[in-house]
Specification:
The structure holds 2 protein chains of 2 kinds. Chain A is α/β, with parallel strands linked by helices. Helices cover 21% and strands 23% of the residues of chain A. Chain A has one domain (4-235): 3-Layer(aba) Sandwich (Glutaconate Coenzyme A-transferase), CATH 3.40.1080. In chain B, strands 1, 2, 3, 4, 5, 9, 10, 11, 12 and 13 form a 10-stranded mixed β-sheet that branches. The chains are: A alpha/beta, B alpha/beta. At the A-B interface, helix 3, helix 4, strand 9 and helix 5 of A face strand 3, helix 4 and helix 5 of B.
Chain lengths: 245, 289
């Protein structure tokens, strides 16, 4: 059986290309990059904000500074090395998740509600703002939870696109490129979140079920290829399927 | 080493960190100075401003214990587990001040102070909502290209507390594995208080001087505290106690649970008792220097 984490991670992995330098966050972003590296993109270089370049963690790290990030990495520098490379425009792609995403691909991991008097005070940016501001393009993974998909995020932690659909002044890169959920694949080529593909067995209504705004469809909405045996086998080195014994 | 520098853990906290100080916490997930931080709680420090890029459960515990007046951070939480609940409660209660940056801008703030310049230009904090909540943040126009950059201000802590693998008698301190932003943060600070796993011969340090992150003349005080970074880890000595972070994630959801944790692990707990409560054998198993 395949769980939601696997659907997101494998679909996101396919958006990463061999030979790219890839700045990753903890959790499903790491899993996606590892699946890519161990299937179609053996030359994908995983970069963690703690300073690891070309990381290849044997177990899924709980922190960007975890032992598995350091051991087996090709290069272990410091924060200045990796964020410096990022700021210099040398890192092709980033993979992030967040508590909320909006139709412009802005991410929120700071507060739900008002900033000074929040309903929920969350963890803040970490490297997310920096990655979203500076990386070549951004791949986003999000569980399908209508509360996470809003027309406008409560707080823009990591900038995506502006209200005009263009990149905000001061940012680099093309910003959000792909958004993967357990149900669908969205793109941002037109300047707003657009349904571009469906996970196997899903329909267009389920893909955006509960979203508070009308999500446009691409001219052609494709059906994503089901995870291959190889992808699933590789993924399970780092992830135990939900419900599996 | 100057004999007044090599001292006890208690003395490090009592004499070299004062109420109201701005304190940089070392350790980017690796070698987090838990023993020193816990000693600050036992010493009853008040009114601290704590700062670091990615702040984990040590920051949460300092906040819960009432040591902290303000937190300056890029991220605060329990990695891969959840929120910093003590911070969340303090924000809800209006009992804490905070200043929120990003990890790269926090690194740049430390880097600037460590280099003795008032700011460094950065290509972040130019979009999104974070800059709106940093009213003192200014931009700068590059005199060469005319570009607008963020002028990320230097942050010079009064004191850095840091844990590392080893030092020699003089105080030359070595750290390897994940250094993160620890070297920048430590050298940004006016005073530096260090705990190490062990003291080694000066010849050992001098055989691999590239591992030294703090030269002896910058050290204010030092203590030898084995396992001083538990429940985080020290490369070459012991691994991360992931389960401890998970359990703290559960108990810290309530103020009562956090208090019980601090009573069990911090208040009135000496190092011998602390070490008796952790499975040192399992955590050191297979971790070779």
């Amino acid at each position: 059986m395949i769980d939601d984490t696997a659907r997101m991670a494998i679909a996101a992995a396919r958006r990463l290309r061999n030979g790219e330098a890839c700045f990753v966050g903890i959790g499903i972003p790491s899993l996606a990059a590892l699946v890519a590296r161990h299937t179609h993109a053996p030359g994908l270089s995983l970069i963690y904000e703690s300073g690891a370049y070309g990381a290849d963690p044997a177990t899924l790290p709980m922190s960007t500074g975890s032992p598995s990030v350091a051991s087996g990495a090709a290069c272990l520098g410091d924060c200045t090395l990796v964020f410096g490379e990022l700021q210099a425009g040398r890192i092709h792609v980033g993979v992030l998740s967040a508590a909320q995403v909006d139709r412009r691909g802005n991410l929120n991991s700071t507060v739900i509600g008002e900033y000074r008097t929040p309903k929920v005070r969350m963890v803040g940016s970490g490297g997310a703002h920096d990655i979203a501001s500076l990386v070549g393009r951004l791949v986003i993974v999000m569980p399908h939870d209508p509360r996470r998909f809003v027309e406008r995020v409560d707080f823009v932690t990591a900038p995506g696109l502006g209200e005009d659909g263009g990149r905000p002044t001061g940012t680099r890169g093309t910003g959000p490129a792909d958004l993967l959920t357990p149900r669908a694949w969205f793109t941002f080529e037109t300047g707003e979140m657009t349904l571009a593909g469906l996970q196997p067995g899903m329909d267009a209504a389920l893909a955006v079920d509960g979203f508070s705004w009308e999500v446009p469809h691409a001219d052609r909405v494709v059906e994503l290829t089901p995870p291959s045996g190889e992808e699933l086998a590789v993924l399970q080195r780092w992830h135990t399927m939900e419900g599996a014994k | 080493m100057d004999s007044t520098k090599l001292t006890s853990l208690e003395h490090c906290a009592a004499e070299h960190v004062s109420d109201g100080d701005t304190v940089f916490l070392g350790g980017f997930g690796h070698a987090v100075p838990f023993a020193l931080g816990h000693e600050l709680i036992r010493a009853g420090r008040r009114g601290l401003t704590i700062c670091r890029s990615g702040a984990d459960i040590l920051a949460d515990q300092l906040i819960a214990a009432g040591c902290v007046q303000k937190v300056v951070f890029g991220w605060i939480g329990n990695p891969d587990i959840g929120l910093s609940h003590a911070f969340r409660r303090a924000v809800a209660a209006g009992s804490i001040d905070w200043e929120e940056w990003t990890n790269w801008s926090m690194v740049l703030r430390m880097q600037a102070a460590s280099m003795g310049v008032p700011f460094l230009p950065g290509r972040v904090l130019l979009a999104g909502d974070i800059p709106y909540e940093l009213p003192g943040l200014k931009t700068v126009t590059c005199p060469y290209t005319g570009e607008t950059l963020a002028a990320i201000p230097a942050l010079e802590p009064d004191v850095a507390i840091v844990h590392a693998q080893r030092a020699d008698e003089e105080g030359n301190t070595q750290m390897w594995g994940v250094v993160g932003d620890t070297a920048a943060g430590v050298l940004a600070a006016r005073r530096i208080v260090v705990t190490v796993e062990e003291i080694v011969d000066g010849a050992v340090i001098r055989s691999s001087p590239n591992l030294t992150i703090i030269p002896a003349h910058r050290i204010t005080a030092m203590a030898v505290v084995p396992w001083g970074a538990h429940p985080s880890y020290v490369e070459g000595y012991y691994t991360r106690d992931d389960d401890h972070f998970r359990k703290y994630g559960d108990v810290s959801r309530t103020a009562e649970g956090t208090e019980a944790h601090l009573d069990r692990w911090v208040r009135g707990v000496d190092r011998e008792r602390y070490l008796s409560m952790i499975d040192t054998k399992a955590l050191a198993d297979g971790v070779g220097k």
